[in-house]
Amino acid sequence: RGTTDAPAAPCAPPPAAGASVVPRSILLVEDEGIVASAVAALLRRQGHRVHHVADGESAWHEIQARPRDYDVLLVDINMPRMNGIDFVRHVRSTAWVGLILVMSGRVSDVELRRLEQLRVQRVLTKPFTPDEVAAALLAAAR
Question: How far is CA 64 from the centre of its chain?
Fold first, then answer.
């Protein structure tokens, strides 16, 4: 089989001219403080509401407590307490509907297959630019 379009696209194309990102409520799941601060700041500059948690276990508790508060999950893969793939697996076992984007400095072929099976809309490879995040959110929403 050839390439897949869903999660395997590490770098989304730039947004089309005139395209704009619809403001979203995003749960940012990232254990590296400096990365979380930078990503949250760029998402807020794009008009999104962002709530940050530092690991998958905290994110799982947040989604269980307030599932309707978020329409996008932006999740790192490698984290303490519960990794991103396990977190996404838990979310997919519920009725939660929304966009799931994963970010990581490296993603193995095995992880990409798991993410595809879990219907993750996009994978962003760190480091990424603000335009790549905007394009991923726009493309995933289609």
Answer: 17
